[in-house]
Predict the structure.
Amino acid sequence: MLEVTDLHVYYGEIHALKGISFQVSKGEIVTLLGNNGAGKTTTLRTLSGLLSPRQGDVRFEGHSLVGVAAHDIVLKGITHVPEGRRIFNRLSVVENLEMGAYTRGDGEVARDMDHVFTIFPRLKERRSQVAGTLSGGEQQMLAIGRALMARPRLLLLDEPSMGLAPVLVEQIFETVLAINREGMTILLVEQNAAMALSIAERGYVLETGRLPLEGAARELADNPEVRRAYLGEA
C-alpha cells in the first residue's frame, strides 16, 4: 500500500532523513520507533505532504506522492494525527469532527460521525463542549476521530500516548487496535515501544535519520539492542 524509497529530507542544511526505505502493507499496523530527534515526526510530515523530500519517492497505492499538496494527499486516502493533537481549541467537538470531513461532498458525514461516537462514547457525551476544555485523553480521541472523518485508508498516528496517564494510554491503544480490526491500515510513531510493539505486526527502528533495524514486532521486542535502548532494560 505504502512504499517509501531512499527518502532524504532536509531542514535547511540539516539532513534529517538519510535515505530511509520502508513499506506498509494493506491492513497492517506498522510501528516506527526511535528517540527524540530520530526523525519520526519528520517522516510522517513528509508522508502527509507537509515537508518535501530532496531525494527519494513515496508511493501510495502505486502512485507517487512527491510534489502532491497536503490536502490532495488527504483526498487520496491518507490522514495524519499529529503529535500534540493539534485540535481546534475554540471549536466544539462536533465542529472539529466536521472539519475532518471538509474534503468530502457525500451525504454520509453524519453516519460517520455517529461511528466515531460509537468508537469514542465520551466524545458523544461532550459533543457540544469546546474542544480546548477537554482532558488530554479526550483531545487525543478527538484528534483520531477527526482524522477518521476523512475516511482514510491509511492512518498516520504520531505519539498518541504522549502526556496521557497509563490507564488512558491503554485505552487509546485498545482503540487503535479496534480501528485496525475494522480494516484500517496504520503507521504508528510511538516512544512507548512496549505498547507499540504489543499491537503492531512489524516495526522499524529509526536512529538519527536512518533505519538500522526492522522486523516482526515480536522479533524486535526480543532484540537485546531494542530492549536496552527502548524498553528500559539494562
Remarks:
- The chain is about 40% helix and 25% strand.
